[in-house]
Amino acid sequence: MEEALKRLYKKLELRYQSHPWHGINLGDESPKEVMSFIEMTPADSVKYEIDKASGYIKVDRPQKFSNIVPALYGFLPQTYCAESVAEYCMQQTGKKDVVGDADPLDICVLTERNITHGNIIVPAIPIGGLRMIDDGEADDKIIAVLKGDEVYENWKDISDCPESIIQRLKHYFLTYKGIPGEEATRVEITHIYGKEEALEVIERSKADYLNHYGDLSDELSKATRELMASKD
Q1: What CATH number is associated with residue 6?
Q2: In a domain, 178, yes or no
Q3: Which tens digits make up the pLDDT trace of 196-210?
Q4: Are 70 and 168 in contact (CB under 8 A)?
Q5: DSSP labels for 79-113?
Q6: Residue 134 sits in which domain range?
Q7: Cα–Cα distance between 97 and 102 in angstroms, integer?
Q8: pLDDT computed for residue 232 by the predictor
Q9: Quick one: how far is CA 204 from the chain centroid?
Q10: Is residue 221 a part of any domain in this protein?
Q11: Average pLDDT rounded to a whole number, residues 164-170
């Protein structure tokens, strides 16, 4: 019975498009290699993000300034920033009362290739991250390189990344929510961390996802069994 249900769900995945957050597999090699879902590219002058309910890309807001995201920008499927991610942030910073931002874990993917549209899946190798706190919420940005990129694939850790690129990323995330005439939100980047910490953050975001959403296949199997039992 259990195996039959799993085969059925696999066939349904082939017939219907998966939700980018819940339906795409992060990858068998995660966290060392991850499948990232890209919402924005450096060519975009509008802030796009996933609509959590439908899975479609939506316009969040026009960019208010001339700053441009300096990398492919999106999130890691089947991750969630909640208690475990927030706990790690507090451990590493000594801060208190930090909570997760209740979103998938963000990722920036560096590549020398000219990828001009989002709504795509990109295989990436994490090399570090920005520990960002946005108005008391842990909002880490994982930094990765495109798998197989001829130029950037030799960067194994954030220490291999030129300082100018790190500064561009920091500037973007410290200013991209700013709106002229309005008080700026309290955004800070406390640390630039390397690969090992990035892998830890990813693992914690996976744990937070399972804690809040569970395993989809298991949930479907459980619901099906309960439905069939109710008919007996």
Answers
A1: 3.90.80.10
A2: yes
A3: 999 999 999 999 999
A4: yes
A5: ---SHHHHHHHHHHH---S-EE-SSPPEEEEE-SS
A6: 2-215
A7: 15
A8: 60
A9: 12
A10: no
A11: 95
User: What is the rounded distance in angstroms from the CA atom of residue 189 to the CA atom of residue 128?
Assistant: 14
Q: DSSP secondary-structure letter at 149? A: -
Cβ count within 10 A of residue 121: 14
Q: Three-state secondary structure along 156-197? A: CCHHHCCHHHHHHHHHHHHHCCCCCCCCCCCEEEEEEECHHH
Is 57:73 a contact under the CB 8 Å cutoff? no
By C-alpha distance, which of 38, 34, 12 is closest to 23?
12
222 DSSP 8-state letter = H
Sign of CA dihedral 34, 90, 167, 172: positive
Token couple for 44: 């975009």
The answer to whether residue 228 is domain-embedded is no
Q: Which residue has the tokens 């909570």?
A: 99
Residue 227 falls inside a structural domain:
no
Whole-prediction pTM:
0.88
Per the structure block, which two tokens stand in for 10? 């696999």
| Domain total of the chain | 1
23-58 tens-digit pLDDT: 899 999 999 999 999 999 998 888 889 999 999 999
Tallying the residues shown for the chain, one arrives at 232
55-69, 87-101, 185-199: which has the minimum mean pLDDT? 55-69
Picking from 76, 88, 79, 82, the residue whose alpha carbon sits closest to that of residue 100 is 82
